[in-house]
């Protein structure tokens, strides 16, 4: 044992791990071999069948509910009168679109699977949609002529590009309607009108098993086309693959779920229990023996080292770990003892320096990035993703990334004017995305100032002040129909002249200057701290500040600072 104790720790680890691996491999071969033979395939097939039947039942119930809601919504005398008006060749298209809004809205809200609804007038070749949806002209009709001419009652058609801007794909659920004396009814074939309920592929997929496909008499609706794996109701084996098909009784659709046997390992079953008990007993015996060795030669020394380090953390730098041996753990023990004395001498200076740096960084981060702003922005991005607005969520995520990159910027105090403008544009994009506004942001920069450096995040607090207090955005009281913000950077006699202009409700000029210079007023911490940072960085005598305000026309804050000497390193 003494020879083993003094071996390098890597050697001891290899010996112990080899023993564990040998036992583990033997048990894996035995246990999984028995499991494969006795029950894994049957368990997989039963689970696949249960999942397919359960999903088919849930989806069929949802389709049935949609059909019942359709009859309740469109099987009314008022809708029949609306169709009568719409069949008039002299009827106005806009008026017809208004007439159908209530029914389309009710249908699109009748199920969590639906995202929108359309109505196609075959007589006038016109598509009516909800006011909230912007139709892409090239996709407006959604259905092909061959599909329209071969409809047979209510049908669910294959997944395809959405006709609505902002959506990727949809699954159309089609209701052909014919008009006869006495009202409107669902046509057995193509009718004069066609109601199209657009189902969300994501919502439909959430009701299906992970590996599955949904098909109809027209072919694949959604999912991965398995080709030869299609079968009549029931299970089918094809080599390692097993598929189970279930026909939805109401809609007639076929749901096929499939699994690859080679990738599925289930719980032990049947007679494998006896073998597994024996295997567990062997593993336990081996584990106990290995644990004793690990405890004696590895864990106990490490535990003593940990206790010594814990004492050092508490300030007891005389603490030592007492155990025999001259391996790596022994060397580490001696190194910790030597380092404890050095740490004791340096800890005071390090702690003081860290506190100063932490206070400086936290003050800047607190001024520029509040948790409230970050949480609201992330929540807005999450809502855009849930609503399927991938482009909007991507743009907001990109804007937030740019915003955070400037806020953090690895402790740098300066930034190029080019990057300062990108930071301000990111803030405007985030506010536009959060509050569904269209704040117009314009900027002008003298060519020689593009890469000039200034104190970072000088303009953003003023832009935020314009958005919140000038435009009233964020408190449900927007005062300006078209908010506009303009920034400019000019070089005049070796000084940078920065202007921030908006068309908001304006401000009292003297009060604004008092608040900014800290002479009075509550709130507006951002602009007051910005002025403090400017005077600290450039010197109060080098900072010039002028404000002017004409309410709802032009309010301007002008800041002049010295031009800094150009640096070689990038400010990004």
Write a compact overview of the structure shown.
By secondary structure, the chain is of the alpha+beta class.
Mind explaining what this structure looks like?
There is one protein chain. The radius of gyration is 36 Å and the shape is flat. It has helices at residues 2-5, 9-74, 77-86, 93-108, 145-149, 201-206, 272-313, 328-368, 371-386, 390-408, 417-435, 460-470, 509-516, 525-538; strands at 114-121, 126-129, 155-156, 160-161, 169-180, 183-186, 193-199, 212-216, 219-223, 234-238, 241-247, 254-260, 414-416, 440-445, 453-455, 484-492, 495-502, 544-550, 554-562. The strands form 4 sheets. Strands 1, 2, 3, 4, 5, 6 and 7 form a 7-stranded antiparallel sheet that branches. A 5-stranded antiparallel sheet has the order 9-8-12-11-10. Strands 14-16-17-19-18 form a 5-stranded mixed sheet, with helices on one face. The chain is an alpha+beta fold and 572 residues long. It is 48% helix and 20% strand.
